[in-house]
Design goal:
Chain lengths: 392, 263
């Protein structure tokens, strides 16, 4: 973004500026943003900025989520809602192809080819920006691209919003994915606009940076003023403070190696005794991508469809081969989830599958905490090593 | 040896029979409730025995038999063997037929006492001391759960039978469907007790979508950890008695068999 000022970016007000942003985006896009519903801040289609969660906050703990009203008017001071952007980019169910049989018994296959919706995602947190990049590599990269995903992704306009009030379950700092955007490692998805919310004596406003020509065009249409030093400093400080009061962290060890060395750990039995194998963790995780397919036929027998739907390594059918599931025990299923997420994901995709959003901690009904499990595995492995060194 | 499904080959329509044992009729009514699809079903299957729809009855054998209800009398036990021998493909539908239904509460009580208290002439009553699923008496080819069953799943079972394929009826928990549907978890966000994590999917996670906990109408899922769930139910305000009662409804007998179930 170029402005006449020496400070990069621009400033928009939290009232007219944000309202105009939603209006401009809604002109030719489906705007998805946070909004309050059923006692949570969910993602949903919005048509005006009034629908955003003004003054709403959340109290998060393992297995617990409570919507609270904040003492201030902050709009984006919350985290770890029950859905992520994969709800839109990688929907829970989609048709892949249909086939019809004509009177002479000939089959005609038709690949699903509907125009992808043009989304504008408003309020993508830095961890989720990273999660989108992770799914880009899984679904959009490699020799076998998920075409529908890629088309939705290419058309999406991303408005990132930095975090100033992380929840008690967040640990993005230790995963290097937040709470600010545009960190040096640079492997997050590109944003079109990045916003940082500031509320102080100077007013309620956003410091805005454009990350693409499309972002610059949108910013140019908003009532804005050039970036000023106080706004930029306030924004930077708020994000730095967020990093400071991040309550959870992954153990600072090589998690990839820890997972590879922990396949026989006793901790898996401990967590399996607590785990419901309900699959909630994988459904809420913004990077979990696994799907299965189902074939639907109609009563005439002349029309069939293949659909793809989310699956989970906690589902017994997920590993069902001839004769039964390969991963029958809860131990083997939890181990699959954690060792893939933190370990073998590196082998497959060259990075971690966890971005530290904390959703799996919050939305696990029994509050199983991925950071606590990793720490326990690390402690067990350290004990094992110490014991081995003592043995002559 | 279980019979194999008969794929529709374009010849004579396969015959369908619907039978009822001890039950409320709700599950077989689900078939009549198929509205737009009902005519298509009748077009593909020759409905030979369905007393709820027509008193015209043709004798077996039947290609597909749907059986509702549990076995609670010596006569039912005999009848279910007759049904089995007349059916090529036998599908039991609903909590009664697949788990013994709410009437399986008798399995935990003294039936003699009930008989003496309830009936003026207890000696007229021929009843078994238990209510059991059809599968406890004869081999069953497919069990469709629910109280009542889900219409979409029933059509899927019939359609799959016609196509000679396995029905797509997942064995995982209600939570899977709840999250796919985008519902805010009532346990995590509201502290409402919910049986979803141990309950077989199939209803589409209706109750949590209306802010209520799952009642367990579809019985235990394929992967249940009751000792992990019960402390949550207790935390969210249920007494030990409430927990016992919650697990002793339409699928009382099948939840009672799960490890860690309250006695
Ligand atoms: S594993 Fe948990 S914390 Fe990590 S990205 Fe997935 S949901 Fe978020
Ligand atoms: S870790 Fe929690 S959310 Fe995941 S399957 Fe186990 S109980 Fe369910
Ligand atoms: S509301 Fe019930 S069924 Fe839905 S995710 Fe929560 S525990 Fe599972």
């Amino acid at each position: 973004m170029t402005t006449s000022s020496s400070v990069p970016g621009a400033v928009i007000s939290a009232s007219e500026g944000l309202a105009a942003l939603v209006d401009v985006l809604a002109e030719d896009r489906t705007v998805i943003g946070p909004t309050c519903r059923d006692g949570a801040i969910v993602l949903a289609e919005i048509s005006t900025a009034d629908e955003l969660p003004h003054g709403c906050g959340v109290e998060l703990e393992a297995g617990r989520y409570r919507l609270v009203s904040r003492p201030d008017a902050m709009i984006f001071a919350h985290s770890a809602g029950p859905q992520s952007w994969k709800t839109y980019l990688h929907p829970q169910r989609e048709r892949l192809w249909t086939v019809d049989r004509d009177a002479r018994g000939r089959l005609a296959f038709q690949a699903e080819d509907v125009a992808p919706p043009a989304y504008a995602f408003l309020g993508v947190r830095p961890c989720d920006l990273r999660a989108i990049a992770v799914q880009d590599r899984v679904l959009g990269g490699g020799p076998h691209t998920a075409t529908a995903y890629r088309r939705r992704r290419e058309r999406a306009f991303v408005v990132a919003v930095e975090c100033t009030d992380p929840g008690a379950t967040c640990f993005c700092t230790s995963m290097g994915s937040g709470p600010g955007v545009g960190r040096e490692d640079g492997d997050a998805a590109a944003y079109d606009l990045a916003l940082t919310e500031v509320l102080d004596d100077e007013g309620h406003r956003f410091w805005v940076r454009a990350g693409s020509p499309a972002g610059e065009r949108v910013l140019g249409r908003l009532p804005h003023r050039p970036g000023d030093a106080p706004s930029r400093v306030a924004a930077r400080e708020a994000v730095a403070a967020a990093a400071q009061h991040m309550e959870r962290a992954m153990p600072p060890v090589d998690l990839h190696a820890l997972m590879a060395g922990s396949l026989d750990a006793a901790r898996w039995d401990d967590v399996a005794a607590r785990c419901l194998t309900c699959g909630n963790c994988t459904m809420v995780c913004p990077t979990c991508f696994c799907t299965t397919t189902e074939d639907v036929t109609d009563l005439t027998g002349d029309h069939a469809e293949r659909w793809q739907r989310w699956d989970s390594c906690f589902d017994l059918d997920f590993s069902h081969l001839h004769g039964g599931p390969v991963r029958a025990s809860a131990r083997s299923r939890y181990r699959q989830w954690l060792t893939h997420k933190l370990g073998t994901w590196h082998d497959q995709f060259g990075e971690s599958g966890c971005v530290g959003c904390g959703r799996c901690i919050v939305w696990c009904p029994v509050g199983i905490d991925i950071t606590e499990e990793a720490a326990a595995l690390h402690a067990e492995s350290a004990d094992r090593q110490a014991a081995a060194e003592e043995t002559p | 040896m279980r019979p194999q499904p008969v794929p529709y080959d374009g010849g004579a329509r396969p015959t369908l029979a619907v039978f009822k044992l001890a039950s409320c009729d709700g599950c077989q009514l689900t078939l009549l409730d198929c509205e737009d699809q009902l005519l298509a079903v009748a077009g593909r299957l020759d409905i030979s025995h369905f007393l709820e729809a027509s008193s015209a009855v043709r004798p077996g054998p039947y290609d597909l038999a749907l059986v509702e209800g549990s076995v609670t009398t010596p006569a039912d036990a005999e009848r279910v063997r007759e049904i089995r021998s007349a059916a090529r493909f036998l599908v039991t539908i609903g909590a009664c037929a697949t788990a013994g239904g709410i009437q399986a509460l008798r399995n935990f009580a003294d039936v003699e006492e009930f008989r003496a208290t309830v009936y003026a002439r207890p000696d007229y009553i021929a009843t078994l001391t238990t209510s059991t699923p059809v599968s406890a008496h004869v081999p069953v080819d497919f069990e469709l759960r629910g109280c009542p069953i889900d219409r979409g799943q029933l059509l899927e079972v019939i359609t799959a039978f016609l196509a000679g394929r396995k029905p797509d009826v997942p064995n995982h928990s209600v939570c899977f469907a709840c999250k796919r549907r985008g519902t805010v978890c009532v346990t995590v966000a509201h502290g409402t007790p919910c049986l979803g994590p141990v309950t077989h999917a199939g209803c589409g996670a209706i109750c949590p979508a209306y802010g209520r906990g799952c009642y367990g109408c579809f019985g235990p899922s394929a992967s249940v950890n009751l000792p992990a769930l019960i402390p949550l139910l207790r935390r969210d305000g249920m007494s030990d008695d409430d927990v016992r009662r919650a697990l002793r409804t339409y699928n009382a007998a099948s939840f009672a068999e799960v490890e860690g179930a309250p006695s």
